[in-house]
Amino acid sequence: MSPVTALGHAKINLALGVGPLRADGFHELDTIFQSLDIHDRVTVTPVDGPPGVRRLTVAGLGADAVPTDRTNLAWRAAELVLGDLTGVPAVDIHIEKGIPTAGGMAGGSADAAAALRATAEVLRVVTGTGSSEAQLLEHARALGSDVPFTLLGGTRRGTGRGELLEEIPATRTRHWALAFNRRGLSTPEVFRTLDAMRVGAGCVASGDTSELLAALLADAGPEEIAPLLSNDLGAPALRLSPGLAEILRVGESAGALAGIVSGSGPTCGFLCADAVTAREVGGAVAGACCDIRMTATATGPAPGAQLVPR
């Protein structure tokens, strides 16, 4: 059987409200995700050997920072799908990175979602039976908070720890310039810093997504959406990486409608009125900010994890 490839798309949080720490160690979240057309390619190949994942390799953007053992979410995703049936093959996994690592854009979760799709298709062809959509979503929830969204894509509100999803039928194309930092940020450290900042301030109030949700449901334009973008993790990311403030300033001065830290950072996203402005903003940030390793433009919403036609 020939290899099966699936695309896993990056995400950006249009709004991210972080509630208090829960008993299970997670924070209660209220977020609005949007998938972007920047993606990784995950290829799953059946090979000879005992059932399971034989090998995982990585190439592309930031490949040297991606684990190639079972700590990689894509490896664990394939194992979960292979565990759905008996008589399954061994597989090799190859990831071609286009999403920055440790950038707050759910690259590892996107890889896991794509691995779920590709491995399920391998089983469908080899055994005649594949995992159901419900099984894949259950596996996604077991793998991590962002994996269910990267599996489904589009624009969705996420609650709980982000895994409880409600589709938002927002189809208008949004144009983004993205600035990828040379140094990553640890997501747990960003959350710990937020908790410490809130203890110091004596409050744990989280951001409110309701206005943005209403605007998206009304199919509002980018000028109306821009002032409603928010991220509770932006302040702790700026405390840990103060240079992000200059990146945001340059992008907004160059014509972006709004700049935000993406998720836990350090990638910065700039909502723009159109594709031309997005290119101009990306160029301005790349030319002015020494901490930037590269910039890119993107549009959203994009699909969830999807098979590449063979």
TrEMBL record:
Molecular function as annotated in GO: 4-(cytidine 5'-diphospho)-2-C-methyl-D-erythritol kinase activity; ATP binding
Active-site residues (renumbered): 11, 146
Pfam families: GHMP_kinases_C (PF08544), GHMP_kinases_N (PF00288)
GO biological process, alphabetically ordered: isopentenyl diphosphate biosynthetic process, methylerythritol 4-phosphate pathway; terpenoid biosynthetic process
Enzyme Commission code: 2.7.1.148
Family under the similarity heading: Belongs to the GHMP kinase family. IspE subfamily.
Record-given protein name: 4-diphosphocytidyl-2-C-methyl-D-erythritol kinase
Gene source species: Corynebacterium meridianum
UniProt gene name: ispE
